[in-house]
Amino acid sequence: MKKEENFSEWYNEIVEQAGLTDKRYPVKGMNVWPAYGWKVMRHIDTFIREELDATGHDEVCFPLLIPETEFKKEKDHIKGFDAEVYWVTHAGLNELDIRLLLRPTSETAMYPMFSLWIRSHGDLPLKVYQLVNTFRYETKQTRSFIRVREIHFFESHTCHESESDAQGQIEEDFVILENIMKRLALPYLLLCRTEWDKFPGAYYTVGIDTYMPSGRSLQLGSIHHYRENFSRPFDIKYEDVEGNQKYVHQTTFGMSERLIGAVVGVHGDDKGLVLPPDIAPIQAIIVPIIAKGNLEEILESARHLADDLKAAGIRVQVDDSDERPGAKFYKWELKGVPLRLELGGRDIANEVVSYARRDISEKGTFSRKNVAESVSTLLAVISDDMRDKARERMDSSITTIDSLDNIPEKWLRFGWCGTEECGKEIEEAADIKILGSPYDKEEFDGKCLACGKDTNIVVYAARAM
Ligand code: ZN
């Protein structure tokens, strides 16, 4: 299966063959997580929890069903989601007076409760998060992890006394994000979405975008500043030090299982997955190389080796199945195990362990004595190398253009005067989506791609996955 030739087909085959997902469940866009895929997701969830717990967020769990009456309180929000929600209209045989919807996101589930929880400035900031499934009726072609109807989702919601406190939260979110993305070896850009593309009800939205080798962009998540846009309709008020009633300023930060889709797309190759060591269910696979008459000796040696590595906190497994070594190599390469360790009679005699990296074609030997330390060090190197390589590929794919002729299948960068009219004209003419301008402003001196006016605004655009 060639990634370069047909990315889409390659992706669809790899995710299933490697055991990340099973698409045979009889509801479109709602896939089963088999054990291997769920282990990868759990590692990602663990990092998310660690980062949020460390920054004073509390984990909560809200109901899946939201009453229509709460959902309709913020009018832009309804407009943005109306066509995408699943409705529950009956309970048993009875038609419901007030319809219930499956959460597409949890603003309208949480905020009526926030208005009960928050009384005074002493209750602020309120910082909570949850890891739950959300539902969206996706009408386009579904794709595992990238476009699904039941989404494994992380969302944090915060309330603050002032706009600047909320702004401070957004800066904290960027640090949290960077720590998580480092583990996934994924590069990304933070782009301020256009007015017509921001989250329904948001004051502003920062999209977290990564570059897929197909030449398209993939949005991994987003961070929103709501100002008082939700606290007013949901009546979330607090009493300040002087005794005045004030509305809270809110933010949210959300990411989904698309993170796995990005890991597959960005790091994978023609042999299968290449998993970053931090999220690999198996970080090192030991393949015993058995010759005539030494089966027991080799297997015992392999198990000792596994014990030593486990004691050092490395996720390791011995493949003692009856398959030939070549078939084992193939299987674990497909599953993206970062490091393969081989142990044969000669290795034991020489007191070494042979290794092969998954991310690049590098082979070598470790001294058996310090093997745990050597493996740990190499796993860290693999993680860094994967990130650097992906970053370089993303950076080199960004192409600055100054005309709408011959648009390449890449990430595009160009000047825009800032008007919706020109923005939409460009999107239509080039069949691309403007992702937005960099959150950290970039020096730019150019012309709007549509009207030709001088501008300092630079935006990124691409075809979306
Ligand atoms: Zn213009």
Describe the structure.
With 465 residues, this protein is α+β, with helices and mostly antiparallel strands. It has 3 domains: 7-267, BirA Bifunctional Protein, domain 2 (2-Layer Sandwich); 282-380, Rossmann fold (3-Layer(aba) Sandwich); 398-462, Translation Initiation Factor IF3 (2-Layer Sandwich). It contains 12 helices and 23 strands. It has helices at 7-17, 35-54, 68-71, 75-81, 107-117, 163-184, 258-267, 295-311, 325-334, 345-349, 371-397, 420-430, and strands spanning 58-59, 65-67, 87-91, 94-102, 126-135, 150-160, 189-192, 204-211, 216-227, 237-239, 245-247, 249-256, 284-289, 316-318, 339-344, 352-357, 363-367, 398-400, 411-415, 433-438, 446-447, 454-455, 458-464. The strands form 5 sheets. The protein has a 5-stranded mixed β-barrel. Strands 14-13-15-16-17 form a 5-stranded mixed beta sheet, sandwiched between helices. A hairpin with a 5-residue loop joins β10 (237-239) and β11. α2 packs antiparallel against α6 (163-184). The longest helix has 27 residues, at 371-397. It starts with 6 loop residues before the first helix and ends with a strand. Zinc ion is lined by residues 417, 419, 422, 448, 450-451, 453.
